[in-house]
Design brief:
Pfam families: Epimerase. It is built from 11 helices and 13 strands. The protein is an alpha/beta fold and 324 residues long. It has a 6-stranded parallel sheet with strand order 2-1-3-4-5-10, with helices on both faces. A 3-stranded mixed sheet has the order 11-8-13.
């Protein structure tokens, strides 16, 4: 590639919430050629197809944002799909990138990789030190495997494959399915419909006591590009060969009750909140230690209420797509 040619960057999962945000971030920065492939164009669980695509596409960098994701209900109902599809996607892309000579890749994981009872806030060193949360163990194991794939190709082949572990994400292009979505889109939709129908009450799953950290997806995209653009010396000075991932989050959390109250404010719901304690709470607290990322020069900029307002406006503009 000559100096005048832009970098050819493959964003796997470009139609998803995180992938689309990374595409927006890269377009804002400019100077690159973004490569994408929809599901009908490329089945990422098909090893031969992925390798053929890489051979033909002359990729320089990869952002691996493709994944099967969902909330507690979806993870409980479809564990086989969650572990199989995520393992296949990451293994196929990472190996195909290596075979094609791609030197730099960024793998996007999840905070669920950490043990259920990890010390809070969760540091990168907590990985593999305890038992995982049972409700999303298959998904978490797949994401841990992705980290170890990157580490292994770095160790054996000298690649520069990096991993970032985001906290709970939300934002435009999220999944607003009434049963298979994460907590923020589920609550936004539930409160929106209650406001529209004039309901007097909204029921929230669980006790409302668990504490969670939430990061707007545009912040996640900015952090991902920031980590990818760190020079090799700086990056390697802040990670270890067997501890190569970096947490991405805000460093602050709130209770699910506080989240629901903020969602009610954003959607202008005037009724009362109640909590269904027969539904699972999941882990009591999940807060990321983001000191490593901060030492590398990045901090989040989008507050929760502002981020929820942005996400709700996106939902209102696209709600015709969420009839089911």
């Amino acid at each position: 590639m000559s100096a005048s040619q832009p970098l050819r960057i493959f964003v796997a999962g470009h139609r998803g919430m995180v992938g689309s945000a990374i595409v927006r971030q890269l377009k804002r920065q400019g100077g690159v050629q973004i490569l994408t492939a929809s599901r009908c164009e490329l089945d990422l669980t098909d090893q031969a197809a992925v390798q053929a695509w890489f051979r033909e596409s002359e990729v320089d960098l990869v952002y691996l944002a493709a994944a099967k994701v969902g909330g507690i209900h979806a993870n409980n109902e479809y564990p086989a799909e969650f572990i199989y599809q995520n393992l296949m996607i990451e293994a196929n892309i990472i190996h195909a990138a290596h075979l094609a000579g791609v030197q730099k890749l960024l793998f996007l994981g999840s905070s669920c990789i950490y043990p259920k009872h990890a010390e809070q806030p969760m540091r990168e060193e907590a990985l593999l030190t305890g038992t995982l949360e049972p409700t999303n163990e298959p998904y978490a194991i797949a994401k841990i495997a992705g980290i170890k794939l990157c580490e292994s190709y770095n160790r054996q082949y000298g690649r520069d494959y990096r991993s970032v572990m985001p906290t709970n994400l939300y934002g435009p292009n999220d999944n607003f399915h009434p049963e298979n979505s994460h907590v923020i889109p589920a609550l936004l939709r539930r409160f929106h419909e209650a406001t529209r129908q004039g309901d007097n009450e909204v029921v929230v799953w669980g006790s409302g006591k668990p504490m969670r950290e939430f990061l707007h997806v545009d912040d996640m995209a900015a952090a991902s590009v920031h980590v990818m653009e760190l020079d090799t010396t700086t990056y390697q000075a802040n990670v270890q060969p067997m501890l190569s991932h970096i947490n991405v989050g805000t460093g602050t959390d709130c209770t699910i009750r506080e989240l629901a109250e903020t969602v009610a404010k954003v959607t202008r719901f005037q009724g009362k909140l109640s909590f269904d304690t027969s539904k699972p709470d999941g882990t009591a607290r999940k807060l990321m230690d983001v000191s490593r990322l901060q030492s590398l020069g990045w901090e989040s900029t989008i507050g929760l209420e502002d981020g929820l307002r942005d996400t709700y406006q996106w939902f209102l503009a696209h709600q015709e797509n969420f009839r089911s």
